[in-house]
């Protein structure tokens, strides 16, 4: 006898039975609808002579004995109409044995192969036992431990690609029966168990193995989530720290992409773009190989691509795909470089995806296959969903580690804005209600706000990268000058070759800073200070009285934590910090009043400047009170606040350590959209593919140029309002006219067409001078930016 309870330890004996389902049919037999009643009578008659189907059995051989009867009993649960579409099984809790399933599930298992054994992936034995105890607490004692977790199958398809399936259990047809002599669970026991989830010994003490009976069956509704899981895996893999030093990263990354694109014959490469030297380079010290560069460490971009493909990737920054490399190789007689290098490595189709945000190209993602037509423009289109994550990951790797840590902390600890807190409370209450009715099958509801209007604005520090580089250069030159004085003095006293060598290096580095400052110059010169100079100076500090005071003065100017001169860079960093702090404080205070006018969602972010998102609409306020008047009011408020922030900054700019310019921009999006709270990322994001266009525009628009020029739409001293619809232009011109009357904006208004961005066309902008007020005692109270600069210079 093959017993279902063999080789499994649970607090209950499992029995397959259909009593609860048959009870349902007994009720259905009384239905006024004769068709339904007749069907119920047929099902009940089928089991009349088979009491074991109600009593339950653990001997699996009975599944064959009563196969016909079971199929009839489950006929409604497994509709033949949907059998090729639904992925559904009938089984028992915490067991991999399946005794009925839809045709589609059978097809999936057949594709996996005869040697594949289905198994729930994320269910350790101890967790399985404790979750089973929770089922007893809920079903028998009425206690809700509020415990649930997603369960998955990982099943390979015919090509060996792992596909992910989420399991949703329906346990309506399970009965829990306590055996004689089984101890009762008291309320004190229940409270103790709640605080000791990991204590398996305690759970087994309160729920001894096989002390209950679980009779019935569960229906598993299964959903293919391969695409979503692959995107999640891509995001997760890109977040992992130190991946450049982990040889396993690329291997894992390839497998994720194979699953995402559904092809086993796929290889992945990556190359870094060096904009200064127009080179494609290998990723250093990593298990990541560039297939375009093959064995070369770097190559000129024009040597890697033909003219058309160069324009596609570097100018247009769109995907390049070639579904038949062999055909193009033969047609061009091997003269097209990107085709030649890939074809000579045995590849037959390829996609090259620029890792860019519309203007800044960071590198190229290389996807290749040895099969013709496997990779093509249609497949390339699927990358649209993942390229933003890849871009952000590459971008993150180029900034300071502290910023990355701060971003992770912020993403994990984002607070819920008061305007939307009510919806989270509502969802939590519903979850508790569902838990009391459905137990572990209850899920936390989606948090979605529909038909809300977005507002976006930013005050951005202009030329922040150049300012940072200039501060770095000044610090390095100052430190080199301090060292040179010591070396000159030492060489004058002692004609040692080491002084001459150090002097040569100092002069060489000084020239590099002034004429050819590169990305790695700071790191190289800093290493020179720490690894070569410090040891010499510290030695001379102990042994040479002539240089002693000079060396002491030198070390007194060195930052103790960084080990370098940190003067100009500190001024720059302090300036950015103060700008962000002061501007954030100002808009936060203004927001308190704005919320009183009409509640809306608000969030702000500190970058090199301050940006903010707002969403307003009926779905956020939960009351039937929204009117477009409130939207118009918030838009006008936003314009005024942006001007207030500009005034606040420029009136205090002289007090900042470094004098920097800022530029302000507002993005107008006139269509309502939906936003959804992403539980895994702890923040709101636009919901749906169409709405995602707003996010694309928001990320790229501040880099847009005026059409036909190299001039940015955002400039200091002016407020830029970006839009796409004529109605928006008319509406905002009215606001501008009002603010001109209030002496907030100047008379000069520009109507501009903007150059198309990647995936974004038809953008326009209004650009208007901001008036700056200095002092009420002045005869002239309002200034344009140029007036203000002239006043400052005077």
Structure description:
Strand 19 and strand 20 form a beta hairpin. Helix 24 packs antiparallel against helix 26. With 794 residues, this protein is an alpha+beta fold. Strands 15, 16, 17, 18, 19, 20, 21, 22 and 23 form a nine-stranded mixed β-sheet that branches. 29% of the residues are buried. Helices cover 45% and strands 19% of the residues.
What's the multimeric state?
single chain
Tell me the span between the first and last alpha carbons: 101 Å
Largest sheet: 9 strands, mixed
- What is the count of β-strands? 25
The rough form would be described as globular
Mean pLDDT: 82
**Into which percent range does the helicity of residues fall?**
40-55%
Low-confidence stretches: 241-245, 399-414, 776-780
- Range of strand content: 15-25%
- Return Rg in Å: 34 Å
Judged by helices, strands and strand pairing, the structural class is alpha+beta
Number of helices: 29
Write the layout of secondary structure elements.
Blueprint (H helix, E strand, L loop, with lengths): L11 E5 L2 H10 L5 H13 L5 H4 L5 H5 L1 H7 L13 E5 L6 E4 L1 H10 L12 H17 L9 E6 L5 E9 L3 E5 L8 H8 L5 H7 L5 E5 L1 E7 L1 H14 L8 H14 L5 E8 L4 E3 L16 E3 H4 L2 H9 L4 E3 L2 H8 L4 H7 L5 E8 L4 E9 L7 H6 L4 H10 L4 H12 L8 H18 L9 E14 L2 H30 L3 H19 L5 H23 L1 H12 L11 H30 L3 E7 L1 E8 L1 H4 L6 H25 L9 E7 L4 E6 L4 E4 L5 H9 L17 E6 L2 H16 L3 E9 L10 E7 L1 E2 L8 E2 L1 H9 L1
Parallel strand pairs: 1-7, 18-21
Antiparallel strand pairs: 2-3, 2-8, 4-5, 5-8, 6-7, 9-10, 9-14, 10-11, 12-13, 13-14, 15-17, 15-18, 15-19, 16-17, 19-20, 21-23, 22-23, 24-25
